[in-house]
Amino acid sequence: MAAATWLVFLALRSTLVLAAALGLERLLRRKPADGRHVLLTLAAAGLLLLPALSLLLPRWELEVLPRWAEPSATAFVSSGEAAAPQPSAARETAPPPAAMAVHAAAMPAAPAVAGRPGRAWIGSLLLAAWLVGIGAAVIRLARALLSEGRLRATTRPLSGPWLDTAAEASRALGLSRPVPLLASDAIETPLTSRWPSPAVLLPVAAEDWSDERRQVVVRHELVHLARGDAWRLLAWRLVAAVYWFHPLARLAERHARLVGEQACDEAVLRLGTRPSTYARHLMEIAESLRAEPRRLAAALPMVERGQLERRLLMILDANRSAGRGHTAAAIGLAVLAATVVAVSVVAPLQVAARAPKPLAELERDDYEQYDDDGHGDFSMQRGLGDGGRLSVHVDGPVRFDEKDGGVRELGPGSSVLIKTRTGGRSQRMTITPAAGGPRYELWVNGESRPVDDAARAWLKDALQVVAASREIGSIQGQVGSLQGEIGEVQGEIGSLQGEIGAIQGELGGLQGKIGSLQGEQGSLQGEIGSHQGAIGGLAAARSQASSALAAQLEREIETHEAAIRKLEAELASGDLSRRMKEAEAELSRGEAKGEREIAELERKIEALQGDQKIGKLEKQIEAIHADERIREIEKRTQPALDRLKAASRQLGN
Length: 653
Hints:
- The protein has helices at about 5-25, 35-55, 80, 120-155, 160-175, 210-225, 230-240, 245-270, 275-285, 305-315, 325-345, 350-355, 360-365, 455-540, 545-570, 575-610, 615-625, 625-650; strands spanning about 60, 155, 180-185, 190-195, 200-205, 300, 345-350, 370, 380-385, 390-395, 400, 405-410, 415-420, 425-430, 440-445, 445-450.
- The chain is α+β, with helices and mostly antiparallel strands.
- The strands form four sheets. The chain has a seven-stranded antiparallel β-sheet with strand order 8-9-10-13-14-15-16, covered by helices on one side.
- The longest helix is centred in the last third of the chain and has 90 residues, at about 455-540.
């Protein structure tokens, strides 16, 4: 398989796997994040194995590749036929009389008469660029691993209550080996590291944290280690390295990090952490950051500002799925696995079918083909009905008469090849430069024949058909060019609309931040209401209880009242109100700025639409009258086509 073809097909395969993974994850967004993270991990493994699977698994060939990505092949005359000895004694050099005016035109491209060098250098260039990109990405990844190792060398172990908290969380998570807790002044947020060995890294300020925060942080980081999230992250980093050219790979890597954090958050909540408490500590840690945590190869920071909002919305969502959705996740995994296998076995049929093949095999195909290399060379194949075929190829500088299409000049090394095959008979004529004018050589059924009047008439009709086809192609090219301009205008409008959507999305993010804070406030108020409800129930039971039981109930009531006072103090502290005001002020500023920017973008869109450029281009397309002109050309050319069919059956009899 040619390098260009293999790379194009690898891009198509990876696109299908990435689209399937992201689409399935989107469908399961209301299900537990753990299942979605497993789905994305399977996608990473499939993408890393995809190049090998495509070579090892059986192939199912489909004709799906664009022709430019295929290996170059000789379209009309195989190199073997071109190299076959031709009788030289019977060659006849005929002057170009007026009757020899040849109607021709440049149709789209093909190889030279004896075959033309392919586009192998394009494939080699693409392969080299791909490998260079992988090498650069792997070097960055290796540097990140080294940086992570150097970071570990600057840490010191924590002791005391941190170890007690870690031991308790390890027992709850089933971790058999103790995990080192290390402090470093080079980080601001807790993170889990897997390189060179498992450890939890904490900022030096963590030594002054409260027991509650210490418990939340340790649980979070040990959950990451128990789930093996660092290795999953490293797998996606490798995917981004192998598919560095693919925007979906980078998008999927970022999304996998987010879903991994959400899965970790769910596990922390299942360990008994209160959602409002957990969300508050995450926000406080995020607010203490002076800069975004640096990206390491296999380390997971507890807080990244870009992910925080969506994580908090999930944590504080009272309707989130907790432990449900295993069946849906299993179905998603099965669908994704089937997709990976399916795209691995599919192979481009055209890669095998479009290699150079014998002329006799090529001429049995019943289709029309035009090719143009943009440098004067062109070729054409056209069916003549009943298995007949016309093949024309022009190689090098050939000048045609603008009025009647006759061959007027052939540059050095140029040639014209015309072939027909009908009813088991074949005719081939070549026109090449020679002293005194073009040289015409004719072969009928592989035997050299003199160029007589019948041959000249056959040649004239053949190139008249080609000239008509080129004229049709020119009309279609004009229409295509104008349609391309329409697409450019529509694309510019779409780009501006995308910028508007981005601004609106940013404002939506700020609104989501306010909603998160409101959710936190509502969660605290809900907990107060829950305690008050419990107090009411206990008070009712106390009135009918014995003195001993009443005393016990009184102590329970006091416990709930203390919890209420603590929650009310948290609400009254003003911290939540302050953050709410800051978020509202940020939203207000963003809305003012966004309104100005959106208004400017809308003015640009109105200017493009008001210019009526699309309408003008559509009128130009209508003015070409392409359908009518093409029908007229086909009608005008039909007599020459009929004569050519008849001549192809009779020439050489």
